[in-house]
Amino acid sequence: xxxxxxxxxxxxxxxxxxxxxxxxxxxxxxxxxxxxxxxxxxxxxxxxxxxxxxxxxxxxxxxxxxxxxxxxxxxxxxxxxxxxxxxxxxxxxxxxxxxxxxxxxxx
Amino acid sequence: xxxxxxxxxxxxxxxxxxxxxxxxxxxxxxxxxxxxxxxxxxxxxxxxxxxxxxxxxxxxxxxxxxxxxxxxxxxxxxxxxxxxxxxxxxxxxxxxxxxxxxxxxxxxxxxxxxxxxxxxx
Lengths: 107, 121
Fold this sequence. Notes:
By secondary structure, chain A is mainly beta. Helices cover 0% and strands 44% of the residues of chain A. The radius of gyration of chain A is 13 Å and the shape is globular.
């Protein structure tokens, strides 16, 4: 089981908006981070500290928070965005926790 | 550019130990810590531990405490992960990642390419 809950899968057509949710009781108290992992590759950081985007990450990726649920939004989805997406934070003891991951399928 | 390069795949028998390396380049090595995260086949991520490359201070996942040892060599900008008393459920890809531990929370950027550790009799 995971301390952060994500939907196993999300499907979206090219050009549409995909929203991937992540929920957990710790989220109002801790920052959340988002990673993208393409098949056979190492993960990359997409969003840090809830809604900050590292340099080099396209503007179509954004993060938002609302209480115990946070969201990764991908605007104008492209075929290359097909990947697994993971949220990450820390529990009340400071231990790292990950969501179970969401597989994004671009139809 | 910032790069973390890990050592190659390893195969061990149950009960043995394994040591994996992670060499950093492209930034001041002691300015940020390094974490290790593992991913079992077809599964999600599990944090293993963190080391301060400046002081050598470590922090381990509670369920791995006693079996994992992280060390750092500032002369070669390398961090080592040693996992002892290996079990079949330790089979995973092990990633190192730069971890600023800021502000008091671990997060990972960038990641190494991963090292597959297989534990099998």
